[in-house]
Design brief:
Blueprint lengths: L6 H12 L6 E4 L19 H7 L7 E5 L2 E5 L7 H5 L5 H8 L3 E3 L19 H11 L11 H14 L4 H24 L6 H14 L3 E2 L4 E3 L19 E6 L1 E2 L8 E6 L6 H20 L6 H18 L7 H6 L57 E4 L2 E3 L2 H4 L2 H6 L6 H5 L6 E3 L2 E5 L4 E3 L8 H7 L5 H6 L1
Parallel strand pairs: 3-4
Antiparallel strand pairs: 1-2, 2-3, 5-8, 6-7, 7-9, 10-13, 11-12, 13-14
Bound molecules: glycine and manganese (II) ion (MN) (2 copies).
Keywords: Aminopeptidase, Hydrolase, Manganese, Metal-binding, Protease
Organism: Anabaenopsis elenkinii CCIBt3563
Cofactor: Mn(2+)
């Protein structure tokens, strides 16, 4: 059995929740889901809310929390299981490990549901079971209501800032992620395809007995924001955009992006844009401290990007005015980042309840609507800072965009930057009592430092492989 956070940490988390609500809570862990036939299954990932309070990724389990006490519901493995899966701990052993106050078979859960709140899981098998047992619809795509909403808000307030045990895990995920990115950079001179670079990066994560916290993006087409294809060959003029993060065995995530030149040296146009994205990244991190509005961090990135694009002759106008009409979002169409924790977009299963301070809703503006976090920052929060520049054909070739921004974009000048399809620089930033700490700072991010660790290769050597 894997090592969990110590039971004092888990007890403390349960007590914090108990201080906020006065009704029982049932949290399901989720089912193991088959691929095409029952014996061949997808890797199991427990619900993050379950993991936070139970501390172990137990499949087909549930916990009941009330007044700081935990009852565990799980079935013992059938006798035949030892043949296929080896000896597994039994219910009592698991209960002791997580500091449960009682442990019962799953069938007894039904008698302990009265007045209980819950949170919907994403997998249909579990939310169907949740709905049947609780006699009301528990649907992941619908905002929670009544006591379920109260529970969601209470859990958010507990999970929004990280305790010491969580930070130990988050630092481990960050460290392995840094190693993975270094391996990706080191593999580039001899790699023929995106897939080979991805393999080098994920090999590090797997070798540390971790998993990826989301599907890796390792691509020469960084302009496709969630690109998950790895078949392209990598050529000397290309930039590799790698957005890869590790997740510890207890489920804590990292989320890091670096962009580097395949040849070992940025072209002058790539370098101009890279330095601009880095300037936005650095300005945002310099501004982070308790009390600062995350939206203002986003707007700062937008302003730095607009100023830089004006300086480069790509945009025309007053940078502040350009931001107000969302011109920055033509090239930086996503938010500056998000919460990070057990989920890579932490607690996004609850829609915007976690990301948005109560009473706030998404802006309808193109340049603000994709912002996933709109709260004042507090010590113990972990966020990403991930500005980017992309030439997205779906945006830049859109007839409406072209007519609205016709006079603002210098298209001829933009064409000179054709070798910059997508650049993003993403780090994981902890808000501290008086500023911030970048958990992923061991990974170089200046163009100069990246070029230094990336041996240059000649086109000929690359082609000859
Ligand atoms: N890796 C997903 C993101 O950066 O938000
Ligand atoms: Mn991210
Ligand atoms: Mn990312």
């Amino acid at each position: 059995m894997i090592k969990t956070s110590n039971s004092q940490t888990l007890h403390h988390r349960r007590q914090k929740l108990a201080n906020l609500i006065n009704f029982p809570v049932i949290l399901w862990s989720g089912n193991i889901n088959p691929r095409n036939f029952p014996a061949n299954v997808y890797p199991f990932r427990a619900s993050s809310h379950f993991l936070y309070f139970a501390g172990l990724p137990l499949p087909n389990a549930a916990i009941r929390l009330e007044a700081g006490k935990l009852e565990l519901f799980i079935d013992n493995p059938p006798p035949s299981s030892a043949l296929w899966h080896g000896e597994m701990p039994n219910r009592e052993q698991i209960a002791e490990k997580i500091g449960a106050n009682a442990a019962r078979p799953m069938a007894e859960l039904e008698s302990r549901l009265e007045g209980a709140a819950t949170i919907a899981l994403q997998d249909a098998a579990t939310w169907t079971q949740q709905s049947q047992l609780l006699h009301r619809w528990i649907l992941p795509q619908q905002p929670p209501q009544g006591i379920d909403l109260e529970l969601a808000k209470a859990i958010i307030s507990v999970r929004l800032t990280h305790d010491a045990a969580a930070l130990v895990e988050l630092r481990k995920a960050a460290a392995v992620t840094v190693k993975a990115h270094k391996a990706g950079i080191a593999a580039t001179p001899t790699a023929k395809s995106e897939a080979e670079i991805r393999a080098a990066m994920e090999a590090v994560i797997i070798a540390d007995n971790m998993t990826t916290s989301y599907n890796s993006i390792v691509t020469v087409h960084g302009e496709v924001l969630h690109n998950q294809q790895y078949h392209h060959l990598v050529n000397p003029g290309d930039l590799i955009l790698a957005d890869v993060g590790a997740e510890t065995q207890l489920g804590w995530a990292a989320d890091v992006t670096r962009t580097w030149p395949v040849s070992g040296k940025f072209s002058s146009t790539q370098r101009d844009i890279y330095d601009l994205v880095l300037a936005a990244h650095d300005a945002c991190i310099a501004k982070i401290c308790p009390g600062v509005e995350y939206e203002d961090i986003h707007l700062l990135a937008a302003t730095v990007m607009a100023e830089g694009l004006v300086d480069l002759g790509i945009l025309q106008g007053n940078p502040q005015d350009l931001v107000e009409i969302d011109a920055h979002a033509l090239f930086f169409p996503h938010g500056i980042g998000h919460l990070l924790g057990l989920d890579v977009h932490d607690m996004e299963d609850l829609g915007d309840l976690a990301g948005y301070e109560e009473g706030r809703t998404r802006s309808k503006r193109f340049g603000l609507g994709y912002l996933r976090l709109h709260r004042p920052l507090r010590p113990g929060m972990l966020v990403t800072i991930e500005p980017g520049f992309y030439q997205v054909p779906a945006i830049l070739n859109d007839a409406h965009v072209r007519s609205k921004y016709e006079k603002i974009i210098n298209w001829q000048r933009l064409a000179e930057f054709a070798d910059v399809r997508g650049i993003r620089i993403e780090d994981d930033v902890l808000i501290t009592d008086n500023g911030s700490e970048v958990l992923t700072s061991e990974l170089p991010n200046t163009a100069k430092d990246i070029e230094e660790i990336l041996p240059q290769i000649s086109h000929a050597a690359k082609v000859m492989g």
